[in-house]
Structures are given as C-alpha cells and as structure tokens.
C-alpha cells in the first residue's frame, strides 16, 4: 500500500517545523533531485514510512517496477545534549501535550537555540542518506521521495522529530521526586503525629508515619493478648515500667 500525499501542488509542508525540515533536506537534495522526488512522492511511489531513533526509512517503487529501500538519517542527541534538552523541555510541562496534538512551539525551538540544540536538522550537513539503488553517491530520487513523505508526516506529527533525536514524549515528563519525611515536632513523638494529644494525625496525608512502638506506654494486658503472657512480662520487667508489677498480677 503506497502513501498518498495530501499536497497535490506547490510546496510540501505547511507548519513552520515542516518547512524548516524541508528546507534543510532540499539543500541536501539539490534542485533536480528535489523536483523528481516531489513528483514521485505525489505519485504514491513511497510504499511505507518507518521513523525510529536517528533514521527514517521506506520502500520506494521505481518507474521500472523495482522496489528500493531508501533512508534519511538525522542523528540522535549524544548524552550531554540529551540531558540539556530534557532540562529545557521539562520546564515546559505543556510541551508533551502540544507535540502529541501536532503543535511544535517555535518559541521552544528558539529557547533550544540558546544551548545550540534543535530537534530539526541544523543544516544539510547534519543529514545523511542511503539507498539500495545504484545511484551513487546520491542522494537519489528515492531518497528525495522519502524526504517529502517525511516532511508531510512531520507536518501533522512533529513527535517524529523527537523520535529521530532518540527521545519519547514520556522522557519529557519530569520524574516526581519522593517527598522528604517531615521531622516530628515536639509533642508528636509518642502520639502518632498529633500535637494536641488526641492521637490523631492533623490532616496532611503526607505527614510521617506514627512514631515507633514505645513499650513503656503499652498496656501489658493488651500486649499479652498479642505476644503471650511470658513475653509481655519479660518486656515489662526489662523496661522497668510502673506496669511491671501489674503484669505479674494481670497476666501471670
């Protein structure tokens, strides 16, 4: 099944980011290849398009009936650039939704430029190509046709630019930091977090868990029901609580 372009005449690509991708690619293609590639793309000669990290590829049907495998490469970010990109992107929590909805904010691209980054090719030199045909060194008309299919696809789905750079929408979402436990205030040490002595937490679900078990404040009779009379007696004696004598009479 071939891919049919929506554009039937004129320039291919309407959004600013599709136009930027097209302009960079056309500087690589040259005028002659750009014209033949555009015609082939509109004729539905590109059979499929697959976009993965650093690579867009597809089969292109030649006029002689042969299928050729064409590819266009835009390298993924190296680790340092990736971290810097994520730092900038995560400061814009709306960015994943906008990209998923087909909108790549131009102001975000300008912000990336301050760190010498771009989701788009920063010139023809950043793009490379290959094809299974014998038109070497190229780029051939099959690569050119693939380029125009990619441009129109990116027009509608700019998230493909993210994919080429080795990123996903999920990467743009800043990880949630674990909440640091709050230090217990005076009066909270032995009453489960309530400063008023009521033994109830004061309303914040992020409050720390109740204070650790304190055997000196435990009813020996209740403790005996859980762990048995002899262990309860030993605990009461060990801590020398006032209840130690009661333990021997109540649970002995």
From TrEMBL:
InterPro entries: Znf_SWIM (IPR007527). The keyword Repeat does not apply. The keyword Transmembrane does not apply. Signal peptide: none annotated. Keywords: Metal-binding, Zinc, Zinc-finger. It holds the Pfam family SWIM. It comes from the Bacteria. Residues 176-222 are annotated as: Disordered. Residues 179-193 have a biased composition (Basic and acidic residues). Residues 116-151 form the SWIM-type domain. This is Zn finger protein.
